[in-house]
Specification:
heterodimer; A: 290 residues; mainly beta; five-stranded antiparallel beta sheet; 9% helix; disordered N terminus; B: 345 residues; six-stranded antiparallel beta sheet
């Protein structure tokens, strides 16, 4: 009974709020956002000399209809497994200028300089991670917090583009990825009752990140291709990190199968692993059947 | 054959014909830049009959935003011997021009679902497979806009209060890796108050600077936000957020989380969620407040029914803010910088 009243109550309130929305529409509808910036490139993957600065440019444009103030700064890398101890290059960046105003439709270049510290030799890391933060402020803010009068409160919303930065140290980059395992098992999915799950496990034993890609091919006992598809991820495989690439496909009919997984670590470096498994009539999956 | 034809005449036609022609596998890359990039589809089919069979495979694409369906021409055809298996390849091209409404081999910018339908020599449908991932055609883009960029909140009222002005977030993101798969991205929200917030002098524990910070830097009032991704679940609560908008802030079920046994609450399922400060977050995405995003590697969002880990909302989406000025809140002027950040590794 309580639930019924509750649902009815919510329904009434829903109508009330809907009515309020309709009434408020003239006040809440507003024109499209009028400012934004675009930045090229959207990611920095650089090989740098450890003993000298590296220079480059970011192209920044304002396709909006209003001038925009752009502020650049460096920050920590945004995504990192907390267990990974990878060094940061946050303090190595300098931007010239680090603050500029772009007129509507204008474009400009911002020079950046990456200066590794002089004591870089004490470390043996092959790669340092960071982020370039590009903040967008309206060129003319209606009210700045310091101008607030009385007890009014203010909020400034800042769109921020965070560009990932991967700086590899020349001479220290070492690419070494291990295909540690291919596991095949039956999986019960949410929407499909029976699925075959393939987990491809990779470990990066090198000193720089890679973006592995590859394919899997599933053959039946007569060596017919049952299914095959590309596999891989947009996420980088960072140094010392592991990655599992899952593949879900419909459980094939009972029988013996051969699975071949091929991973391209980088151009020209290929790893391959083959595994046998059997799908029993009761739909259990047996790895490496005799 | 006569018996077969009689059966067709006497009984209602089945959805699929009796011929044992099966689609074994399909594959296609999912991201392309117009104009001119060739889009190649591969279809593997098998004839399980005892005689040679003619097979036609139609590749149909349906525009996700308009619902318009088109069959790409030329269609793929083959005469397949008994027990044979073959792979057909169809290549079509991308173009900036608007595709004609009828059959055509041009794929114009947009997002499409893909279906592969096979017909036998009688024109009866024998099998169909659907593409696991949508097909995206468009220029690479990464764009984020927010409106309004400055909000006068007036005098903060006591208690919970939702600000009626929504923040509109426009975004576009089309980037792909060398496998032509979606590049993961996220739009997260946080305040950046660490430089301004000092906290109460001699306090035993420094409070989080998340939320609105008083101009003297001593006090903070927490900020919460809501967007359509946060629910609530209409089946559990009866609140249709898609129709009615943000749920009321004065109901604990929405503000603090739905009730559990023994007076507890499922705080993780609250519709109004706290906006953290930059200093509260770690590189671990669990500590982030994500508005939208897409990440195949995040098991929280990627499932077998949502393989791309898609928790995006159509652009523009709206975001609502609310404050909770509790009994310890101190009157005065408050301000904050709210960062809406687009990040992709």
């Amino acid at each position: 009974m309580k639930d019924r009243c509750r649902v009815e109550g919510v329904g009434c309130r829903g109508k009330a709020i809907l009515a309020a929305f309709v009434l408020l529409t003239p006040f809440t509808l507003h024109p499209s956002p009028v400012f934004s910036v675009e930045v090229e490139p959207t990611r920095l993957e650089l090989k740098i000399q450890p003993d000298q600065p590296t220079r480059g440019e970011l192209k920044i444009s304002n396709p909006g209809r209003q001038p925009v103030e752009v502020r650049l700064s460096a920050g920590p890398y945004r995504f990192l497994d907390p267990k990974l101890k990878l060094p940061s290059c946050q303090d190595w960046f300098r931007f010239e200028p680090d603050r500029l105003t772009l007129a509507a439709g204008a474009a400009t270049s911002v020079a950046y300089t990456v200066t590794p510290p002089s004591n870089l030799d004490v470390d043996t890391a092959g790669e340092y991670l960071g982020a370039i933060l590009v903040d967008q402020y309206p060129a003319e803010q209606p009210v700045r917090p310091e101008q607030a009068v009385g007890q009014t409160s203010h909020l400034t919303v800042v769109p921020r583009l965070a560009l990932a930065a991967y700086l590899m140290i020349q001479g220290r980059e070492q690419v070494e990825v291990e295909l540690t395992g291919v596991r095949v098992r039956r999986s019960k999915g949410q929407s499909s009752p029976d699925l075959l799950r393939i987990d491809v496990a990779l470990k990066n034993n090198g000193t720089v990140h890679v973006r592995p890609s590859g394919t899997y091919a599933l053959f039946d006992a007569e060596n017919h291709l049952v299914r095959g598809s590309p596999l891989g991820k947009g996420m980088p495989l960072l140094p010392t990190a592991g990655m599992t690439i899952p593949v879900l496909l419909p459980l094939p009919p009972a029988g013996r199968y051969r699975l071949v997984v091929t991973i391209e670590v980088q151009e020209g470096t290929v790893l391959q692993k083959e595994t046998l498994f059997e799908v029993a009539p009761d739909k259990t999956v047996l790895s490496n059947p005799s | 054959m006569t018996i077969g034809l009689s059966a067709i005449c006497l009984f209602p036609c089945p959805a699929f014909a009796a011929f044992n022609l099966k689609l074994v596998n399909t594959s296609f890359d999912t991201h392309f830049n117009p104009p001119g990039e060739p889009v190649t589809f591969q279809v593997t089919l098998r004839n399980n009959e005892t005689t040679t069979q003619f097979a036609e495979v139609d590749i149909s694409i349906t525009d996700i935003s308009t619902g318009q369906e088109r069959t790409l021409v030329p269609v793929l055809t083959v005469s397949l011997p008994a027990g044979g298996q073959t792979t057909l390849t169809g290549t079509y091209r991308t173009a900036f021009q608007k595709a004609p409404t009828g059959a055509s081999g041009i794929i114009s910018p947009g997002s499409y679902t893909v279906a592969f339908t096979m017909f036998d020599g009688n024109g009866d449908r024998t099998d169909q497979l659907r593409g696991k991932f949508p097909l995206h055609v468009g220029s690479e883009t990464e764009d984020l806009r927010v409106f309004p960029e400055a909000i006068n909140l007036g005098t903060l009222p006591a208690g919970r209060h939702m600000f009626p002005t929504p923040i509109e977030v426009r975004w576009s993101f089309l980037r792909f890796n060398r496998l032509r798969q979606d590049q993961p991205f996220t739009i997260r929200i946080y305040t950046d108050n660490a430089a301004r917030f000092e906290g109460i002098p001699h306090a035993l524990r420094k409070a989080s600077p998340a939320g609105l910070v008083s101009l003297d830097g001593r006090y903070a009032i927490p900020l919460k936000c809501w967007n359509l991704n946060y629910g609530p679940d209409i089946q559990e609560t009866g609140w249709d957020a898609a129709l009615a908008g943000p749920p009321p802030v004065d109901e604990d079920d929405f503000w603090r989380g739905p009730p559990l046994l023994e007076g507890r609450r499922n705080y993780d399922a609250a519709s109004w969620v706290r906006i953290p400060d930059l200093v509260d977050m770690t590189p671990n995405p669990v500590t982030w407040r994500r508005l939208i995003g897409q990440d195949q590697s995040d098991s929280r969002f990627a499932t077998d029914s949502n393989p791309t880990g898609d928790f995006t909302l159509k652009s523009p989406f709206t975001l609502y803010l609310a404050t909770d000025a509790g009994p310890t809140a101190v009157e005065g002027s408050y301000a904050t910088t709210l960062v809406v950040e687009l990040w992709s590794p």
